[in-house]
Structures are given as structure tokens and as C-alpha cells.
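Q: Here's a chain of 101 amino acids. Please give me its 3D structure as C-alpha cells.
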Amino acid sequence: MSDKDAYHPIPETFRYHLKKWITLFVGYSLMDYSLRLLFKSMRWRVDLANVPDTYSVDKYPDPLVLDVWSGQRRCVRFLVQDLWAFVPDLYRRVTGEEMPE
């Protein structure tokens, strides 16, 4: 995962945005190894003080994942909420309208 840019497995566009923008994981679980690997590779050799906040919406975050990613590494803040309630509320706050059905 530390190949030079020309051979890097993650496109530059994704790497740029994940390093510059706040990230919100909706519908993903950090129990998924592929997601953890992607997330870890995006933060490889990067000063965490320069990384924007990252959030994960999860009604029942795994205690070990919560401890490692939120507690020990302090990389992810968990929003312990039901996804089906969170998304319409987020839509309403962003657009000022009710989410269409």
C-alpha cells in the first residue's frame, strides 16, 4: 500500500479527498477488513494532526473496533445512531427539506 504514485492501488483522487475533507462513513462498518485497510493506508505516514475529522454512523459499534479506532488511535469518532434515522435527519439539515421517499 506504500507504492509510488504511478503504482499506488488507491487512485490519487480518493487519496486527496480523504486527506483533505471530513469523511463520513454511512452504511459501512470498520469490522470490514477491506475498509480498515483502505482507511489505514490513507493515514500511512501522515501526521494525524493534519488529518480532517472522520466519523462513522453505527448504532452498535463493536467494542473492540470502538476502542481501537476511537480510543487508542483517535482516528474515528463514532456517531452511535440508527442509520435509518440519521440519513433523513442529515438530508433535512443539509437541504432544509424532507427527504423524498
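Q: Can you summarize the key feature?
A: The beta strands are 23-25, 54-57, 77-79.
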